[in-house]
Fold these 3 entries.
Entry 1:
Amino acid sequence: MAVSSDRDGTTEALTAVGHRTFSGTELKEVRERDGSGKKLLHGGQAAQTHSDGNIAWGRWTDGRRNLGSNDDDDDDGDGKGRARALHYFTFAGTPTLPVVRSFNSFGSTATTVTSAQGQLLATGAENMAGGSLRVTFPTIVGGFATFDLAVPVSGQTFSLSGTALQTGTYGFAGAASITSTGNGCASLCTGALGNGAAVRGMVGGAGSSRAGLLYGFDSGLGRVTGAIVFKP
């Protein structure tokens, strides 16, 4: 999964299902198929890359996301986007249900803040955003995940809490109550990941041993995005 804040000012959370190519811990691209098919994510300039064998995560500056219906793997297609900041996580291994487990964060990308015009306004420090996650997925539907997060950037810390509903088999998404130690939420902070969602994430890794979460919300500073990874 990835969240891309683009150069045209738009932000989108996306799931790119395909063949992933790595160089060490660095995600180089995602294609529809191994060695062929459209490039779904490519051309990124890696700012951060990490992996623990079950989950990989990182941040790109620049890069393209091509998730439209066009079949030309060098064309941007209907879902074209040129990233200003792209945060991602991806899993290795096979998850299993049920998942009824508490997770704590152990890594995160550096939080980015972008303007409505797609300019990068601020960048936080990696591994500073974090928190806790409780996942209750008894079966393939009807589950939920509760979260409590802290996101420091630009001299203040945003706090996000709420309950996200299960989406698909292992995913979750939901709105959040968002406050700030500064004036970032003086005019209300709202989710920016579609349908009011401020967080989107998944459980993955061998035996459902990891979780990843993307956050994205509008604040008085600009649009705040990033990724956090968790383990039990």
Entry 2:
Amino acid sequence: MPRNISVPWAALILLALVGTTSPSSEHVNHLLMRQRPAGPANSLPEVLESQNYLSKYASLLELLAPIDSAFEKETDFDIDNENQIVPLLQYHILKETILTDDLQVVEPHFPPTMLLNETWTNITGGQRVTLMRQDEDEVFLVSGLDSRSMIDYQNRDIHFFEGVIQPIDTLLVPPMPLAETIRGRIPSMSAFLGALYKTGLADEVMDAKDVTIFAPDSQAFQKTYGALSELSNVELRNVLAYHIVPNRVLYSSDLQHQGQFLTRATLDDKTEPINITITAAGNHRYIGSSAVLDPDIMIANGVVHIITDVLNPLIPDAQPDPARKIQSPVFGPRGNATTGKTVPTPYLSDLPCITDCAATEMTAGPARTLHTPHPPTMRAAAVKCTGLPGVKAVVGIGMLAGIL
């Protein structure tokens, strides 16, 4: 027997779906009031069927429903905050149904959600979430700020009507803009972010729709500090532009085979963009000759893949040697002879302060390891000029509590 979802959670899901049809606020509030507990609880199918313009969703829904314990730390749940509730709920509703038994081990899927609100996302077709089977009885999701949520495997694939509920242990976090993502969860990308600000590319990249960013980590910038420090601002801007693929959101599943994609960079004074080359070798993926270190970091307007080395647009035909752990440099020795971990992380001074900021030096951190997505953990977050609200302040609600 399918499990019913009783009000007020059916009403909240209804509210999320109503949000995709752009009704008036008065109509949304009217629907909420009609569905609040005052009599016998309605099931979700009954709620959907009662609204004829929502009937198309009945066969499309997959709900990612946080279990009760996910809300114990959430204290500011506000059912009346429509601007907050609607997009967060929409991010917990997939546009397609994927059963856990259909997932292959370590083969990520990136289903679109119903989060289409341009205040929250700038991706064609809806913001995505990563869904992956880690092993026989572990399936997890990765959302914004690299937040991970495990599916309750013992209670997976709960069917209702023609949809499916997947109980999850942690709220999904709608992906944040690039700057907030780096500052909040990925401090190893701070040099890249600082360089974007230095060259005036940061706002352009974060305002663009559908972008893929191959971002060198800070160790990569330390390794090439001598050469990069000799570049003009225009030259550095073009180097960074070579790491950005516009108008395409390329997840790791799109990097499985050899291919080329146009970047924002140009060669010399020409206007034609330069291609980057994708190479697949065993389980590893290379962008030019740089290995993908950490794939599929969701951001509001696309996806980021962290890579091991800074790419050089003047050497677009650079190829990797998969047999080598360290690839041949694409930047020759120039400028400051001191490079590597002894060099202070460059471009941190170009990061804008957003609160009272004490200058702190970031260290290179532990040795890097290539890997595929992994089970739920959270990266350490300690980065200069951090004044961002935490995940709790961003998400800070108790969605769908008691849904099961």
Entry 3:
Amino acid sequence: MTTSTTGWAAAILAAMTICLPYLVRILAKAKGGHPPRDELIRSHLVIGFVVLALSSAHMLASMTPTIIGSAASPGIAVATAALVFVIIQVGFGLRLNASKPDGKRNSRRLHIVGMLAIVVAVAIHIAINSPLLSRS
């Protein structure tokens, strides 16, 4: 896989896993029921781990002298921060999944803050480093 393929795949799957809980909740409410929690959480967790794997593969594929030499340093720094945020986010998600109902509020807030940090870092990385947005 190319760096572009792994990067965009990770970004698309991240967007999917962000939207999944909200979409399922909206659809369940429209049908007058409750979302299927176990299936939803399992899918959300699996996609989260796939995002982590693809993000790691993207980073490893990007670590060539040619790419590093031509890439903008700020973009690489932001991408590194995004990967760290993804790792932390997986931890937040596991903590949220394991927490008791009375402890979910704080864990959910951390999970949402982590998601926002990832979205911002990835958007900045794409703006700086994506060949699709390149001005040259």
